Amino acid sequence: MRLFLDTANIEHIRHGVELGVISGVTTNPSLVSKEGKVNYQELVKEICSIVFPGEVSTEVLSQDASGMVAEAREIAKWAENRECCRQDTSHLGRGESYFSAS
User: Fewest beta carbons less than 10 Å away: which of 8, 14, 78, 86?
Assistant: First the structure.
């Protein structure tokens, strides 16, 4: 079984990593905004560095398919193969889309 934290709270993430119980983190812009963070890119990079080599899953903001793809490819570069970008595209008839920097 793999356990992922669904948060952008750095303190919670550090604690989970220190306990050795998490496989990774899922987060999204809404969770980031709840933490009062302004710079999404900096926070995602920090999360990736804490969780490494575990997985980090994030979401894009774009609502159209081409925007989602472009944004996901850019976000995937932020973490040097440590991050997947996910966006629910079921409303476009495509299910979920995943991108990684690898």
Answer: 14
